[in-house]
Write a structure and sequence with these properties.
Layout (H helix, E strand, L loop, with lengths): L6 E2 L6 H8 L2 E3 L7 E3 L2 E2 L5 E7 L2 E5 L1 H10 L1 E2 L4 E4 L19 E4 L1 H14 L1 H6 L4 H15 L5 H9 L7
Antiparallel strand pairs: 1-7, 2-3, 4-5, 5-6, 8-9
The protein binds zinc ion.
Zinc ion (ZN) binds next to loops.
Length: 167
């Protein structure tokens, strides 16, 4: 994975690549809903977007790619974080939008964010127990929930992942 390096996405130069990216995304109907990646999902529950540039194949995390589309590039060392706590979300909201999804941040931002979620209780308090396997299952369930278009009930069921026996 080269996802931690600099990632440049040029709207003209990479137009076909961007179109392929969007073909793997199903958008939620409201600003608070996530846009869900429906392409490959790795063992860690995060998406995989495979690219070939200058004859070299590599893969990136789709939410990092989404940030690079929005800003033109993501610098090396800059993290792409999920304010919505959904690893397969690729929505980059406007700064003025009350609900943020994928945002860029530093390692320090990430530590602060994780601490805030631990204190926050609610669904985040449950999610800190997630193992990679459970996270991947939830990501795959979300992908299935939107495979034929956005299905609000199926998405909510997948996000809740109401299966304590798995833990
Ligand atoms: Zn989201």
């Amino acid at each position: 994975m080269r996802s931690a390096g600099q990632l440049v996405v040029d709207r003209q130069l990479h137009a076909a690549e961007i179109a392929r990216f969007h073909s793997h995304v199903v958008c939620g109907p409201t600003p608070s809903d996530c846009n869900i990646w429906t392409g490959a999902i790795g063992a860690d529950g995060y998406g995989r977007f495979y690219l070939t540039r200058d004859g070299v194949g590599f893969c990136v995390r789709p939410h990092r790619y989404a940030l690079a589309i929005a800003g033109g590039s993501v610098a090396a060392g800059v993290l792409s974080l999920h304010e919505c706590d959904n690893p397969v979300c690729v929505k980059v909201a406007a700064d003025t939008d009350p609900q943020q999804h994928v945002v860029s941040g530093s390692q320090g931002d990430n530590m602060e964010r994780m601490a805030r979620m631990r204190r926050g209780g609610g669904r985040h308090a449950v999610r800190r127990c997630d193992s990679r396997g459970v996270r991947r299952e939830r990501s795959v369930a979300l992908r299935e929930a939107v495979r034929h278009g956005w299905d609000t009930a199926a998405v909510q069921a997948a996000q809740l992942g109401d299966q304590p026996t798995l833990w």
